[in-house]
User: Fold this.
Amino acid sequence: MKSLDWMDSALCAQTDPDLWYPEGSGQHARTALRVCDQCPVRPECGEYAQGVEDASDGRRYGAWAGLSACQRNRQTSASAARDAQIIALTAQNLTAAQIGDRLGITGRTVDRVRATHRQQQEAA
Ligand code: SF4
Assistant:
């Protein structure tokens, strides 16, 4: 299990939680997203959010990692294409670091995509 120590540095933990799950007006969401812009753990938050949302059948709600739910929905299509690239490059025996360098992502993201793919293969 991954460490959640990064949450200790999450700026949203120091503010009104309702800002991240706004109802009605988008003003609260805009405020939340401005806080996210300054947050030092935004990459970790983004990876965590994707894991949570993947585990809940892709349901997205609220602001995470500087993105609204709609923005994360759009990002999902791009992520699927990126994941396919990761699997293709893995088949060419590239390391996670090499793939990360090529695609402009972290090796940890590559490892996560590979692990998810392996689990899907095993379950099939
Ligand atoms: S990036 Fe994530 S952890 Fe940081 S303030 Fe935004 S929602 Fe919270």
Summary: The CA atoms of residues 2 and 48 lie 10 Å apart.
